Amino acid sequence: MVQCLIKKTLLKRKLKKQTKSFETMGSSSRSDTGRSPVPEDEEDSYKDRPKAPSIQRQVSVTKLVSGLAPQEDQPVMLHHHHHEEDVPDMIGGDDECKQEEESQVTRHDSFSSIDSLSEEERCTLLFTEPDDYGQRHPIETPQLIISKLRSFEYQLVLIPHHKKTCLKKAMKNCPELLTDKFKLMFLRCECFNEVKAAKRYAKYWEKRVEVFGPEKAFQPLTLDKALCDDGFALSHDFPMLSPVKHPSGRNILFADPSTQNIGAYTTQSMIRAVWYMFHAALEDEETQKKGLVFVGDCRYIRLSLFDKEFARVTALSVAGCLPVRLSGIHGYYPPKVFFIILPFLKFFLGERLRERIRLHGGENMEKVRAGMAKYGLVERVLPTNVGGEVELSHESWLQERRLAGL
């Protein structure tokens, strides 16, 4: 219907132009393609003029992209740069109009069938089934990664300049660190939502400069580079990366707050140490995809050991900057004093991470272990100091990484 309306409108324009331009028009003056005659002084330029694309095809693409066809009582706006002489060659007969309309309906229906899917149906198509932590994970393909990385770059351009000042400095000072592999961590963290991933990426660099300072922020996060002055804070076993993974394939970070020695090192140094441990855990691709499990031994925690600034910056880093998905935050045998600290931590963690906190305590040891086992925290992945089988040697781990240049 739309094409036929276009045909009538443009034919009227053609006849009006022909009446004004030519006194006579013989049948021999029409070309084989059905174009109107061309004055001799314009013939050369007309031959060199590129042929315009089909108007029908332009309207068809517009309908498919927008999902809405123009109504009959609405004006049809055609933006083109060709002359009316080209009209007969671009408008088909009634049969061609009908075939084009039928083709458009078929293609439009294929788009509508996807658009009409519910959110749950879309997740089923693109994500795995919920795992033991209730999380769904994107089904990655090479095509998905390439497409999302391109979209990610586009979203970075859209971020206001004042919100990506440090990112722009990183692009200038350490472009070798800004690899696709590095950016992919942010996409995985946000389940390939490129808008959220780009915002997290920009915030990451703002926070990284805040934590490491402008001199070290753009250096590699290795023990001999950006962490060269933080060896003492790193040696305090807070936190530690387990050599044994969670049954789901996630890395596990253990932390015992009682090992902290406030006053022996600065708060900023300990924050840098925590950043290093998170990045070490993220070297594992499976952890990037599925997330990280954090387990805290709360038995010996004391209020005097609680550093509000350290807790605040660490929580904010995890909640909106570091490219890490925290699948679970577990604390076992928390004392009463811990419940004084907990609201403060929850405030900075945000709603989503607050829901992932699980406390395991009570007098019945078997009941506590059964509760932790529900989340895959069984004896073979727990440290020996809480009845598990894993021997933790943080000092040896640091030495190995130092020798490897990590």
From TrEMBL:
<dbReference type="GO" id="GO:0016020">
    <property type="term" value="C:membrane"/>
</dbReference>
<dbReference type="InterPro" id="IPR001251">
    <property type="entry name" value="CRAL-TRIO_dom"/>
</dbReference>
<dbReference type="GO" id="GO:1902936">
    <property type="term" value="F:phosphatidylinositol bisphosphate binding"/>
</dbReference>
<dbReference type="Pfam" id="PF00650">
    <property type="entry name" value="CRAL_TRIO"/>
</dbReference>
<dbReference type="InterPro" id="IPR036865">
    <property type="entry name" value="CRAL-TRIO_dom_sf"/>
</dbReference>
<feature type="region of interest" description="Disordered">
    <location>
        <begin position="14"/>
        <end position="57"/>
    </location>
</feature>
<protein>
    <submittedName>
        <fullName>Tocopherol transfer protein-like</fullName>
    </submittedName>
</protein>
<feature type="compositionally biased region" description="Polar residues">
    <location>
        <begin position="21"/>
        <end position="31"/>
    </location>
</feature>
<feature type="domain" description="CRAL-TRIO">
    <location>
        <begin position="247"/>
        <end position="394"/>
    </location>
</feature>
